[in-house]
Structure formats: structure tokens, C-alpha cells
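#struct-help
A.M.: can someone run this one for me? Single chain, 130 residues.
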Amino acid sequence: MDPARAAAILLCGACLMLAACTLPSKEPEMRIATLIRIERPQGEFFSPRMPGPGRPLTKVYLRPNSGGRPGDAMIVVAVLGPYEPAILGRPGDVVLLTYPGPFQPGREIPFEDLVGYAVISRSGQPRTPI
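D.P.: on it. C-alpha cells below:
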């Protein structure tokens, strides 16, 4: 192969790689939602992304308040670990979710896939054990 042609091919490849690095990445999607209920199925659960022994599973059911379309399905976040009200919230609390891709209606989202999860408003209702 001609050295000039090889250099041109390498230059084109380098330019393509540089252009790919400068393209804007997809913005994470944010939703504000109200925590409706917490479920804690019995048993130990495993994840291929989290090595180690089985852990309890906590499912957080959220109703979107904004950022979605009317009638959007409930968001279910699966947390591999025990229920921690200080982090996950309690029914009636409002949370802010940040997800790297579009929210898929009716699809369960693993907690470790979220970019952010924060309780932004606590319910004024008296706390009852779940």
C-alpha cells in the first residue's frame, strides 16, 4: 500500500474518532414523581452486576408528576437491598429521578441504572410502619 494512502486512511480514522468524541451525549431524563408504595418481596435476590451474596429486594412504586405525558405508566424502581426510608422515601414523599435514557412506561428500572435519586419533599402525613 502506498504510504500516502495509508497516512490518509489513518488521518480519516483519527478525524472520525475525534468527531465522535465531540458529539454531544444524550442528556439524562429527569422526572419528579410521588412515591405511592413500597413492596418487599420475600427471599434473597441476585444481580449479575452486583457480585456477592443474595440481598433483599425493595420495589419502589412512583407516579410521575412532571416531565412525562398524561397517563404515563407508574415507574417501578427495583432496589437490591433493604428498604431505607431516609434514602428511598416513604409513601407520599416526592422524589427526583434522573435516568440516562428515556423512561420506558411500565418497565422496571434497576436502582443502579439511575444517575440520580433524591427525596425532594417529605409527606406531611404521620409516619406509619410499612
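A.M.: thanks! The mean pLDDT is 77.
D.P.: also worth noting: The beta strands are 29-39, 45-47, 50-55, 57-66, 75-80, 94-99, 108-110, 116-121.
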